[in-house]
Every structure is written in C-alpha cells, then in structure tokens.
Specification:
Layout: E1 5-10, H1 13-19, E2 25-29, H2 35-45, E3 65-69, E4 72-73, H3 85-88, E5 94-98
Parallel strand pairs: 1-5
Antiparallel strand pairs: 1-2, 3-4, 3-5
C-alpha cells in the first residue's frame, strides 16, 4: 500500500469564509498528488466549495481564480500533472488566489 501525502492548501478569505475554514487546509492524497485530486478532495471535504473553484458540470476553473505553488503558476497546466515535489513533501503549500481585474 502506497502511503499518502499531505498537501497544504491556502485559500483566499472569501472561500475560507464560505467553507468556515480557519487557516491552512491539509489534505491527504495518494501520490503523486495532482491539482485535480487536490480540488476533488477539497470539494469533498468542504461541500460548500463545490462550484466556487470549478464549474459544477464542466469542472473547469472559475474565471478569476488561479493556482500557484513553489513560485510557479499552475493555472494553465494540465490538472493531471503531479504537483511540485516540495508540495508533495509538505514543504510548500498550493495557493488558490483570487485574481483582480479592473480598468479605466
């Protein structure tokens, strides 16, 4: 049996408020952990987040949300790629960031 890895996730304040989360989230996933597996586990553990990060039906990322880890923008990478090694080892978190848009 393959041991699981603990992935750290940092959510923006509005998503933490929706799910009544205080601080960082720790999710146990089978290796190699992927962004898709992370989001599946996050929505399973916190059902209030379903539809807030990904569309209910298409499972596509919602506009104005981005994913970062280890100073890398993972937003447009395949969600099935393994997360960076430092994330897999619990040294670095995955950040879900609310993008800011504006203009004149």
């Amino acid at each position: 049996m393959t041991p699981s890895v603990v992935i750290r996730v940092v959510l923006p304040a509005h998503l933490r408020a929706i799910a009544a989360i205080h601080g960082e989230v720790h999710l146990e996933l089978p290796p190699p952990a992927t962004l898709r597996a992370l989001l599946d586990a996050l929505e399973f553990r916190f059902p209030a987040l379903r539809g807030t990060i990904r569309h209910h039906v298409s499972r596509e990322r919602r506009p104005f949300l981005r994913f970062f880890a280890c100073e890398l923008d993972l937003t447009h990478d395949s969600p099935d790629l393994p997360l960076p090694d430092a994330v897999q080892r619990g040294l670095e978190p995955v950040y879900v960031i609310g993008a800011i848009a504006g203009g004149c």
